[in-house]
Amino acid sequence: MGAFGWPHLLIILAVIILIFGAAKLPALAKSLGQSARVFKGEMKAMKEEDNATASAKVEQPASDDAAKASVESGKPADSNS
Question: Does the keyword Transmembrane helix apply (predicted)?
Answer without folding.
Answer: yes
